[in-house]
């Protein structure tokens, strides 16, 4: 039964706003990376952001959202550059490179976290909340986190809107985009910068392990309903936003349920329903094949 007192509470509104803005921006960016065939890069960057976040805490001994975000972007950028260098100069497949970089950087983050806990200079580090950035803990989100997430999400959406035509050409025909004078390196850089910023901002909500789902799952869902690029982005954003608010509500009403995982589960359920009942889903495909038979 719907509980109005829950949705009108301050705690719910803070978490819901943060997850809403983050999910909408992540879904839009995820649509671009999925259609470009680079959805796993978001997963690699998400895991690779963790050591930079821990390193920022070690250097400044503060858990301010902006400081941790800059640390996450720093290590995520290093990982992304490393992926590109190895991919261009070796014959190793991109999936293998992503797996190696992902596990290496995340392992480094866990080592740094262990160093903090075992170091007498960081006696209170076990209570610092850094462990929340692994699996996420939206319940501990503050208004400062919401403001940072909102700013980053809105700026990312604004950049997508400004460079929409260039991004669309880059996604579907990079060679043609270059032939008409579009600098694809700059476009790709903008997409990756926005992705790293959104991932870094969202680590506290869903954690380094689940952050890639915010990018990939809404895009997969939307692709079952349309072939139009703009419509797919809108549907993905709606799915992300709806899942964020619904997941936050469920985790608030039922104690013991984590907000981040609940949001991801909600997204996944919508994805499976779309894969089965969508216009491009299993049932629609089965009917078309039956007609031809």
Summarize the structure.
This protein has 293 residues and is mostly helical. Helix content is 81%, strand content 0%. It is globular and about 70 Å long.
Describe what this molecule looks like in 3D.
Helix 3 runs parallel beside helix 5 (94-118), helix 4 packs antiparallel against helix 5 and helix 11 packs across helix 12 (259-277). The chain has helices at residues 4-7, 10-35, 39-60, 65-89, 94-118, 132-135, 143-162, 164-172, 174-179, 184-223, 229-253, 259-277, 282-292. With 293 residues, the chain is mostly helical. The mean pLDDT is 85. The longest helix is centred in the C-terminal third of the chain and has 40 residues, at 184-223. The protein has 13 helices and no strands.
Present the secondary structure layout:
Blueprint: H1 4-7, H2 10-35, H3 39-60, H4 65-89, H5 94-118, H6 132-135, H7 143-162, H8 164-172, H9 174-179, H10 184-223, H11 229-253, H12 259-277, H13 282-292
Overall number of strands: 0
Query: Please, what is the average pLDDT?
Result: 85
Distance between the termini: 47 Å
Please compute the radius of gyration using only Cα atoms.
Answer: 20 Å
Tally of contiguous helical segments: 13
Given helix and strand content, the structural type is: mainly alpha
Q: Major sheet, described briefly?
A: none
Give the SSE string.
HHHHHHHHHHHHH
Q: What level of helicity do the residues show? A: over 70%
3D shape: globular
**Strand-residue proportion:** under 5%
Low-confidence stretches: none
List keywords for this structure.
293 residues; mainly alpha; 13 helices
């Amino acid at each position: 039964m719907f509980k109005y007192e829950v949705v009108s509470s301050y705690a719910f509104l803070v978490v819901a706003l943060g997850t809403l803005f983050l999910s909408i921006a992540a879904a839009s960016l995820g649509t671009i990376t999925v259609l470009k065939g680079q959805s796993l890069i978001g997963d690699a960057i998400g895991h690779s952001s963790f050591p930079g976040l821990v390193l920022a805490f070690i250097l400044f001994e503060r858990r301010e959202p902006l400081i941790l975000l800059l640390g996450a972007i720093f290590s995520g950028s290093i990982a992304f550059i490393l992926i590109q260098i190895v991919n261009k100069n070796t014959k190793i497949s991109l999936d293998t490179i992503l797996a190696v970089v992902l596990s290496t950087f995340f392992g480094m983050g866990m080592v740094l976290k262990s160093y903090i806990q075992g170091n007498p200079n960081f006696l209170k580090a076990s209570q610092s909340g850094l462990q929340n950035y692994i699996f996420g803990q939206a319940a501990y989100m503050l208004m400062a986190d919401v403001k940072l997430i909102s700013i980053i999400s809105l700026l990312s959406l604004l950049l997508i809107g400004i460079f929409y035509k260039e991004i669309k050409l880059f996604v579907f025909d990079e060679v043609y985009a270059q032939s008409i004078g579009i600098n694809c390196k700059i476009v790709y850089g903008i997409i990756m910068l926005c992705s790293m910023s959104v991932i870094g901002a969202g680590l506290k909500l869903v954690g380094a392990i689940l952050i890639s789902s915010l990018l990939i799952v809404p895009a997969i869902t939307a692709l079952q309903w349309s072939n139009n690029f703009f419509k797919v982005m809108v549907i993905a954003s709606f799915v992300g936003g709806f899942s964020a608010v619904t997941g936050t509500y469920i985790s608030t009403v039922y104690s013991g349920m984590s907000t981040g995982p609940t949001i991801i589960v909600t997204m996944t359920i919508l994805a499976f329903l779309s894969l089965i009942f969508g216009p491009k889903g299993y049932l629609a495909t089965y009917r078309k094949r039956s007609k031809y038979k």
